[in-house]
Amino acid sequence: MKSAMAFNVVKWLGAAYLIYLGIRTLLSKTQNEMKVARSLDRKMLRKIYRQGLITNVLNPKVALFYLAFLPQFISEAVEAILNAKKIETRTKRIADVVDRLAKRNA
């Protein structure tokens, strides 16, 4: 029982810290950084995207993260397709919020 409580405390502290880091990063963006981001052309953006995609696909830590993270959101009582749709919807919502915050601070 104690280890379950300790796990929950660490989990929520970690989540709060990640939220803090995200908000701090979004709010600390300076005007110079925004000008540089706007000046990037499409070719450069594609190169950066491709590099990030390859890095994440070949990184075994990404797979380990998903194996550790996703089971919390998967219910055995629900079909796999519904679980996948639920995770997809949550991911899209989070991405939309981050995108709106980034545009608001741009």
From TrEMBL:
Topology relative to the membrane: Multi-pass membrane protein
Lineage: superkingdom: Bacteria
Pfam families found in the cross-reference section: LysE
Keyword Metal-binding applies: no
GO annotation, cellular component aspect: plasma membrane
Keyword field: Cell membrane, Membrane, Transmembrane, Transmembrane helix
Protein name as catalogued: Uncharacterized protein
